[in-house]
Design a protein that fits this description.
Layout lengths: L2 H12 L6 H10 L16 E7 L8 H4 L16 H9 L28 H6 E5 L8 E3 L10 E3 L5 E12 L5 H18 L6 H5 L9 E6 L6 E12 L22 E13 L2 H14 L1 H12 L5 H4 L8 E2 L2 E3 L2 H10 L10 E4 L6 E6 H18 L5 H8 L1
Antiparallel strand pairs: 1-6, 2-5, 3-4, 5-8, 6-7, 7-8, 9-10, 10-12, 11-12
Helix pairs in contact: 4-6, 8-9
């Protein structure tokens, strides 16, 4: 619709009692509705967005794992097994090696060593609850002779307390989530008992190596821009529901009690609505991925909001280093026909600090193949299959 037609339609809608939707929010912010007529304010339709869990830094090297017989299964040589996957995802240092006489280059094709998050948790999450509300502490005086009282703020609103976050995940064949959280919480207790030891730098710096950070990103209704963002200071799982795994019931042929599993994360601290959270998010992404670090450092060094920084054209492919930003128009195609695309499950999230867009970056070669595949399938779906017709479309 042209701008002239849109303006004409707006003028017509102004003549109706409720006015037009475009100006309803502006009017509601600016002045008093003294006629008390209905105001067609659009309701919020924020998308739930994404939940990300950063990878912990467990010490699952050969020398450490060998101290506990229950972890011997982690030493399997099968690189496609869940055991190798869990070992590599929970110990990011294995692939790069650490120190002398330790396992170096322990990898799994199921683990992307350039990914700082645990994809299986982001992809499997069903629900999450337990974030604390912000309540200002106040003081109220003792009542006087006429029961008069006064109150004032008597504390800060920064959330540094400990609380629990309950997360429900969709389980799937092989129960990899059960095994992952079993190893995770078992490691926590074994470190406490002194049977296993953290990496030396964790000990000298007095850091807890089994912590994760939970990031929550709420998107707008287009699933493009970040509306709100929050994160925990640090979290760690405290339970794993293995009991029902061994239940027995002859009334049903299969045990369906673990279709969904609930994990409780003990969390400390809560930060929301601060731009610093976006910086931390990009920082951890770039720490694990050298190519993403180029984008991150370029944005930090930018003195203005040039096109290379805003990257707000939804149809343009922006490139930096070996990576390219997946254009927004392609994301709409991914949601309906993802089987065409190799970039799905091969992307890295990044928050544009200039526009608040949740960007997805991937290898440039993969993206080029996907774009070619998209147009190829569009041509075939429209019946343009001959060489002559294809040449006409390209021209």
């Amino acid at each position: 619709m042209s701008a002239e037609k849109m303006l004409y339609l707006t003028d017509i809608l102004r003549q109706f009692p409720i006015g037009n939707i475009q100006s309803s929010i502006t009017n509601n912010l600016y002045g008093i509705n003294f006629t008390q007529t209905g105001n067609p304010l659009p309701r919020p339709k924020d998308h739930y967005g994404f939940t990300f869990f950063t990878r912990p830094q467990l010490n699952l090297t050969l020398a450490n794992v060998s101290n506990y017989r229950g972890f011997y299964s982690l030493l399997t040589e099968n690189r496609l097994s869940y055991q190798r996957y869990v070992r590599c995802i929970l110990d990011p240092r294995l692939a790069r090696g650490w120190g002398k006489n330790l396992n170096t280059g322990v990898t799994s094709p199921l683990v992307d060593e350039n990914m700082c998050f645990i994809p299986i948790l982001t992809n499997s999450i069903k629900s999450l609850s337990g974030w604390p509300d912000i309540v200002v502490p106040s003081f109220t005086s003792e009542p006087g002779n006429l029961n008069q009282e006064f109150s004032f703020v008597d504390g800060g609103t920064n959330e540094y307390e400990a609380y629990d976050i309950d997360v429900t995940f969709k389980n799937f064949k092989g129960n990899p989530l059960i095994y992952l959280f079993y190893i995770w919480i078992k490691y926590e207790s074994l470190v406490y008992e002194g049977i296993l030891s953290p990496y030396l730098d964790m000990v000298t710096e007095n850091e807890i190596d089994y912590n994760t950070r939970i990031y929550r990103i709420v998107l707008d209704d287009t699933k493009r821009y970040v509306r709100y963002m929050a994160c925990t200071g640090a979290s760690f799982p405290v339970n794993v529901p293995i009991g029902s795994l061994f239940d027995f019931n002859t009334d049903t042929p299969y045990n369906s009690s673990l279709t969904d599993i609930s994990i409780r994360f003990r969390s400390m601290g809560f930060i929301a609505f601060e731009d610093m959270v976006k910086y931390w998010f990009n920082k951890i992404v770039s720490t694990f991925n050298a190519d993403m670090r180029i984008i991150f450092e370029s944005d930090l060094d930018a003195s203005g909001t040039s096109e290379n920084n805003t990257r707000d054209d939804p149809t343009k492919v922006y490139k930096m280093g070996n990576y390219a930003k997946v254009p927004h128009f392609l994301l709409t195609q991914l949601s309906t026909s993802y089987s065409y695309f190799a970039t799905n499950f091969r992307v890295y999230p990044y928050i544009n600090l200039f526009t608040n867009e949740l960007e997805w970056w991937t290898e440039e070669l993969d993206l080029n193949r996907d774009i070619d595949s998209l147009f190829k399938n569009s041509i075939e779906e429209n019946g343009l299959g001959t060489e002559t017709e294809n040449q006409e479309v390209e021209s």
